[in-house]
Amino acid sequence: MTKVVLVSAVALIDVDGRVLLAQRPEGKSLAGMWEFPGGKVEPGESPEVALIRELKEELGIDTWSSCLAPLTFASHAYDDFHLLMPLFACRRWDGVPHGKEGQKLAWARVSEFSKYPMPPADVPLIPILRDWL
Ligand SMILES: Nc1nc2c([nH]c(=O)n2[C@@H]2O[C@H](COP(=O)(O)OP(=O)(O)OP(=O)(O)O)[C@@H](O)[C@H]2O)c(=O)[nH]1
């Protein structure tokens, strides 16, 4: 039976309309792929709370539930689990994002996303983000 894994992710959007992508480090699944910041929702967490925690842990920034607008979601069958991933949009945070776990970051226009290979689950999200921005 497939396990559904809930992962919360965000398109952080800067004043120029660029979106932050983070590269998955070596040694992890999908290493080298560029993804939206976020991570697994732990038991007892809402997607928003999980995202706020992950943004602090991974990027060293603070944001708030009121700044997280639901945008779309990914639903993708990986070999070993089914990913369900709400994608929020966020334009307000405190601090300057930096890769606290050594991951590379890139601010990219959606029109440049083809330069940044993304996990298969993320591919259908790109035109939605492009039309929305
Ligand atoms: N944060 C994030 N995760 C994504 C995206 N697209 C996508 O398929 N994922 C998958 O969602 C899961 C996120 O888990 P995670 O980031 O909290 O945990 P992890 O690095 O330890 O993953 P792992 O257990 O697969 O190694 C990973 O399997 C990752 O490949 C995305 O755009 N952002």
Describe the protein's architecture and organization:
The protein has one domain (4-132): Nucleoside Triphosphate Pyrophosphohydrolase (Alpha-Beta Complex). Helices cover 16% and strands 31% of the residues. It contains two helices and seven strands. A four-stranded mixed β-sheet has the order 4-1-6-5, sandwiched between helices. Strands 3-2-7 form a three-stranded antiparallel β-sheet, with no helix packed on it. The relative contact order is 0.26. The model has no long low-confidence stretch (mean pLDDT 97). The chain binds 8-OXO-guanosine-5'-triphosphate. Residues 7, 9, 28-30, 35-36, 38-40, 83, 85, 119, 121-122 line the site of 8-OXO-guanosine-5'-triphosphate. It catalyses: 8-oxo-dGTP + H2O = 8-oxo-dGMP + diphosphate + H(+); 8-oxo-GTP + H2O = 8-oxo-GMP + diphosphate + H(+). Its EC number is 3.6.1.55. Its cofactor is Mg(2+).
Topology-level CATH name: Nucleoside Triphosphate Pyrophosphohydrolase
Structure class? alpha+beta
Distance between the termini: 37 Å
CATH superfamily: Nucleoside Triphosphate Pyrophosphohydrolase
GO biological process, one term: DNA repair
Family: Belongs to the Nudix hydrolase family.
Cofactor: Mg(2+)
Keywords: DNA damage, DNA repair, DNA replication, Hydrolase, Magnesium, Metal-binding, Mutator protein
Concise summary:
The protein is an alpha+beta fold and 133 residues long.
Name the features.
133 residues; alpha+beta; Nucleoside Triphosphate Pyrophosphohydrolase; 7 strands; binds 8-OXO-guanosine-5'-triphosphate
